[in-house]
Amino acid sequence: MKWNFADKRLENIYDKIQTETSLSRQDGLLLFDTLDLNGVGMLADTVRRRLHGRKAFYIYNQHLNYTNICKNRCLFCAYAVDKADSESYSWNMEEIERRLMLRISEPVNEIHIVGGLNPDLDFSYFINLLKTVKRIRPNAKIKAFTCVEIDYLSNISGLSIDETVAALKDAGLDMMPGGGAEVMSERVRKKLFPKKIGKERWLEIMEAVHRAGIPSNATMLYGHIETIQERVDHLVSLRELQDKTGGYSCSDRKPHSYHAKQETGSVKSAGGFSAFIPLAFHSKNTRLSELPSTTAVDDLKMVAISRLMLDNFAHIKAYWVMIGEKLAQVALNYGADDLDGTIIE
To answer: When comparing pLDDT for 321 and 34, which is higher?
Structure first.
């Protein structure tokens, strides 16, 4: 029996999710346009419960941000500094080891590693970094380096993307985070992060990573200058790559996969993208500080619409660091099934 939606346009979306039919770009725009927040949430929760029942996931992880020196200096960033800045740092292997040993008694099973593009660090630094972490935490998965960092490492090493990924994998890389694409819009890139790689390069690198058997997350930084159309286009681009490189398929789509599919509960997981993480933009301490914060309605809609549009993604994260613990709890009824990690630092 159908729900009595306040916005009758959602009835067509309901029919599609019941038949596991992919939503169109127009459907995505409708979901952002509607004022029926609870209706959108109920739709997303239907999909979430179909995949995961009442389970919610998290990871016991530790973050290592190896340097805050970065030559890109994106306008939305409150982290990067120049080398001459009094707060700049780059950790050597002794410091990496010290920080890992501080939490060695904890059951950490994932090490999350990202940092700035620091011209003083050569390719061997990153190989040593991975090997050091793997030596100290042999049983933890290393999730490291965005596509922006992979592109940079390819440039400084003189290796192809495939060769770069292979070298990092051999040194201990297990998985990649999903950052660096922000919003896949050339308009936004030119205004906010002109020195970063663009959409096509990001997708090319992520495809190579998946082809090498390394799964990754995907993200979207939302709530700054992007349009709703650009949000929807970003989600569709991710879904199209997932169809090509991994994930499970809806009944009306049979994507090619580089990997043999394996059952994980009710979800078929096969490399490719493991999870999608909507990242709410926080403007404080950035050069976009005049922009307002996202609202709870926008955050919940973003989670729910991600669950509905990304029907070949196993997991949607409510990233509690960005939206707060209470709203992340609510988001578990709006399509999210994962709260990310412990992130003590």
So the answer is: 34
